[in-house]
Design a protein that fits this description.
The protein has 191 residues and is an alpha/beta fold. The chain has a single domain (12-145), classed as 3-Layer(aba) Sandwich (Rossmann fold). It has 4 helices and 12 strands, in the order βαββββαβαβαβββββ. It has helices at residues 24-37, 76-81, 99-108, 130-136; strands spanning 12-18, 42-47, 57-59, 65-67, 69-71, 86-89, 112-118, 139-143, 145-146, 153-154, 156-159, 175-178. Strands 5-2-6-7-1-8 form a 6-stranded parallel beta sheet, with helices on both faces. A two-stranded antiparallel ribbon has the order 3-4. A two-stranded antiparallel ribbon has the order 9-10. Strand 6 (86-89), helix 3 (99-108) and strand 7 form a beta-alpha-beta unit. The N and C termini lie far apart (39 Å). The structure holds zinc ion.
């Protein structure tokens, strides 16, 4: 993904999506690190809601990390991204819908925008605003985890508690990766 074939002028949008435990943050950090090694100006954001591990950094499950700016709303990105050549955003599914227009604006102004996020919620339904971002992006990378039950490619995030909150931040004790056959969506009564 870091090859010379990218356009040299003009920005573009890259989306990294998939279920939990598919390595989205790891892949985001890998791309951002390559840009830093190339001495590009990189700025990284994450929404405030995700405070696991470390408030000031983006940390993958395997402990890779990169320092980030915590934001409350997508609009906050613009003031911090003015001089950046590369803009990274993690856990974008926790941001407001305004991120779609802002990501477009950043790419239009010549920046490389790399966005990582869950593409489906715990019900297995598209997690807004990911569908719009995927439609706008030049490059979409879909990552898969491995189903903890059967070992098949896992495209779903199974919530292991009966909470009906859309956002339930946490890691391995609340969620696991499941394939389409092992995924059990919450029943109508639970919703
Ligand atoms: Zn399975």
């Amino acid at each position: 993904m870091d090859g010379d074939w990218y356009p040299h002028k003009g920005g573009w949008l890259e989306v990294i999506c998939g279920s939990m435990f598919s390595g989205k943050t790891e892949e985001l950090i890998r791309r951002l690190r390559r840009a830093q090694i190339a001495k590009q100006k990189v700025v990284v954001f994450k929404p405030r809601i995700d405070d696991r591990y470390d408030a000031e950094s983006i940390v993958s499950h395997n402990q890779l990390q990169i320092s980030s700016i915590v934001i409350d709303k997508s609009e906050d990105i613009l003031q911090h991204a003015i001089f950046a050549q590369v803009v990274g955003i993690d856990e974008v599914q926790f941001l407001d819908e305004g991120i779609v227009e802002i990501a477009q604006k950043l790419a239009d102004s010549g920046k490389r925008v790399i966005i990582a996020g869950l593409d489906k919620d715990y019900r297995g339904k598209p997690f807004l605003p990911m569908p719009s971002l995927m439609a706008m992006a030049e490059y979409v990378t879909k990552l898969l985890a491995i189903c903890v039950r059967c070992g098949a490619p896992a495209n779903y995030t199974q919530r292991l508690t009966r909470s009906d909150k859309l956002v339930e931040v946490g890691a391995s004790e609340i969620y696991e990766a499941r394939c389409r056959h092992c995924f059990e969506p919450p029943s109508k009564n639970d919703e």
